[in-house]
Every structure is written in C-alpha cells, then in structure tokens.
Amino acid sequence: MSTPPTTSNNSTAKSDPLADVPTDRRPRHIAMIMDGNGRWAQRQGQPRIVGHQNGATTVRKITEEAARLKIDQVTLYCLSSENWKRPADELEFLLQLLSQYLITERDTLMENNIRLKIIGRRDRIPADVQSEMDRTLEMTASNDGTTLCLAINYGARGEIVDAFRKIGNLIERGSLKPEDITEDLISQNLYTAGMSDPDLLVRTAGERRVSNYLLWQISYAEIWVTEKLWPDFSVEDMHDAIRNYSQRTRRFGGLASSQDSNSHAVSKDDRE
User: Fold this and answer.
1) In terms of CB atoms within 10 Å, which end of the chain has fewer, N or C?
2) Mean pLDDT over each residue of the chain, to the nearest integer
C-alpha cells in the first residue's frame, strides 16, 4: 500500500505554529517588559550598549510576528521615567538608538501595515528624537493592522497623576463634578485612551515585578515570565506565552462557567 499524502492539517501546523490555539483564545493586546539587555551584554563580555543593540533586533522580530499573527496591539516598555538615573553615556546611546530605530524601521512598519503609537511624557526627550517620533507616527497613521505602542519616558504613576490633573482642571472649570468621576473617565484621560487594556503581560529576564508599568491597565492581565534575557527572546518564546495564555481561564473576579472549566485548562494561578 502506498504511503498516504501529507494531510492538510500537518501543512497548516507547519505554516501556523499556533494552529492548535483558537483565535478567540489568543490575546488581543500583549504588553512586554523587555528586561535583560545589559545582563546579556555582560555575559558576552561586551558593553551594555551591545545588549541594547541586540534587543532592538528582537523588537523587530517580535513586531513582525505580532503582525503576522494579527495581534491587535503590542506595547513595549522602551524607556521608563526611572531610567534617567542610569549613566549619561548609556542614556545618550539609548536615545540615539531610539531615533535610529524610528528611521530604519519605517519600511518594516509600512510593509507589515503596522501603526505606531507612543505613550509617555515628552519632556526630557531631545527635540530631534521627537521630530523622528512625529514623522513615523504620521507615516503609519493610516495603517490598520497591528498597533505597535512604544512606552518612552513612561511611568504609570506619572500617567495617573497626569490623568488626575486633567480631571482636576475640568472640575476647576466647573465642567465636571467630583461625583461624575468614574473608572471610564479616568481611562479616557490616561495616555492609553482609546486603547484596549493588555490581556497578557510578558516579562523577560526572570524578574517578577511590574516596575511601574501600565498599573491601571494591567489590572486583569495574565502575567507570563521567562528566564530568557530580552536579546534571546524568540518568536517561539512568544508562541509559548500565547499558548500558555490560551490555557488560562480568565474570571475577572467572578466564577468560571462550567463550560470554560470543562473545555480549557486552568492555570495554577487561577486555582489559588
């Protein structure tokens, strides 16, 4: 008897590494804390800036894969408001790298129909870097595929302070009463206004803290931590994170339905 031809299911699995994960079980919005660039460089016996350079390469791979998988949004923690405590030469390099990224990756963003968004305070960002930010934002504004959101000079506490200042100004002008303040109103005054909250938070380098990142928005996000340093983080690691997410039952403070309990695995975190 002749050997049967390869099935279409096998072919699909090869073309889609997440063929086993239903699209409705995949996260729509993935936030990432890209940790470990400096440690990666030190382990290679290289200056920290080499780690940042390799980390930028990982950003491209992950961004392209997110677009291929049709993830609605990926938000990356690029530069925190606390990072200004780092040595001046490293900060100067990071800002140069950011400016270079905004220029060199424009073709990648356009080819993949990716729209760029940027959140964070603009103060302390050099004018030439802001100019490149604005140009890339304008170029990609009409793209309707994956949104790539870069958190630059970002801190969640500062974001919440800025939101309350906006709301306070409305109250002071008499256009808003304190009793009119709702969670939706606060969300509408955050940097992320109009964006969905992250479904999945990924952190590299084995750290188990959120580091003042999207504190309001990740209230119900699933968290996935890997020991991999960011320059070593691969698209396969991203697939693992998505697959792990798909096996969790998200209850948002309620109880899982019997259907969900029977049809989907429940993570250890959900059982506790």
Assistant:
1) N
2) 90
CATH for 203: 3.40.1180.10
3-state helix, strand, coil in the chain (%, to 5): 50, 10, 40
Please identify which of the residues 35, 54, 153, 199 carries the catalytic annotation. 35
- And the tokens for 55? 């980390």
Q: What are the backbone angles phi and psi of residue 117, rounded to the nearest 5°?
A: -130, 150
CB atoms within 10 A of CB 177: 9
Residue 217, classified by CB atoms within 10 Å of its CB into exposed (0-12), middle (13-18) or buried (19+), is buried
**What is the token pair recorded at 104?**
């060199």
143 is catalytic: no
Main-chain dihedrals φ then ψ at residue 126, nearest 5 degrees: -55, 150
State which residues form the domain around 205: 25-155+198-247
Residue 83 among the catalytic residues:
yes
Backbone angles phi, psi at 153, to 5 degrees: 50, 50
Kindly report the pTM of this predicted structure.
Answer: 0.87
Residue 113 placed within a domain: yes
| Number of domains comprising the chain | 1
Continuous segment of H or E residues that includes residue 21: none
Single-letter amino acid code for the residue at 116: L
Active-site position among 20, 37, 72, 83: 83
User: How far from each other are the two terminal CA atoms of the chain, in whole angstroms?
Assistant: 53
16 falls in which pLDDT band (50, 70, 90)? confident
Residue 111 has, within 13 A of its CA and on its CB side, a CA count of 9
Listed residue (198, 215, 251) closest to 27, CA to CA? 198
